[in-house]
Amino acid sequence: MFCVECGQEGETYDGLCSKCFLAKGRFVSLPAILDINLCGECFAVQIGNKWVDSVSIEEAVRLALGNALQKDRQVAETSLKFDLTENDPRNYKAEVVIDFRVRDLLASERFSVGIRLKKETCKRCGRRAGHYYESIIQIRGPRPKSGRDVLESARALALSRISEMGAKNRNIFISKFEEQHGGYDIYLSSSSAGKSIAKELAKEFGALTKSSASVAGMKDGASLKRMTYLVRLPEYAVGDILVIGGDPHLLRSVSEKQLVLFDLVHWHDTSISPGRLSDFELLRADKHVKDALVVSENEAELQLMDPETMDTVDVMRPAGYSHQGNTVRVVKTNIGLLLLP
Ligand SMILES: [Zn+2]
Ligand SMILES: [Zn+2]
What distance in Å separates the CA atoms of residue 42 and residue 125, rounded to the nearest whole number? Predict the structure, then answer.
């Protein structure tokens, strides 16, 4: 075979020798001038429709060149190298070398691209400046006299989740944070983030949640629905004793849907949904659960030293009860000292 262009003999590509084939084709191209939008607030760079966070000028130019590079279908394995010179803080020159492969040929093209940096405002900063929000998480604590700092734990959990989400998706941010009577209001840029945080708080603390929607204008041509997620934190926590209908129960776990309890009188597991628990007396673990010294024991009973009065008391041994060491965990209730599993 010989080249129809220059007559050279050897392998041909569409009738051309490799040299003529590569010289004739426009396999890769870059624009002579490339505008790069940078956010004046957060210095994110716009690549196509996306805003990318915290990149150097070098990196921004690399991403923008990669995005602007046009390739013929036959091109594979491109690599992009460039030298950047600054004309002034807004204008740079990039001397670019693109190495690539077409069929079994390796080739290289050089481009000189003028880079212009433009100041813009990214979508997030624009929304942030406008106090944009799609949801409100209202965290409300238990009655103040319960003395629980569960409200602070819930707030900390919510904030750390939001910052994790924001690190993955830059459009998730807090647009407003307000301390309210009995809790906090967190205004969030995303309603799905609000929903998942409310759900997590419900699961973690056994909180009751309620959601409500309101229509607030338009967003991208569709009506913008704003969600409010009310998260009501309970007074109880895992390890506390709930006296329900006169029977003390140990709270073993909490979730959105159920509280797993252990009936300390009848010595078995039971459960209840948080919404159905209305009337109960709370014996907090940190005040009421104590270690008691085992004075003696047999198959039917344990003789314990009451940790408060130091009196010796007999406690029935529940079926299957065993313990290690010479102390056991007990709770003092108005029906006497009860063993904890
Ligand atoms: Zn040729
Ligand atoms: Zn920005």
Answer: 7
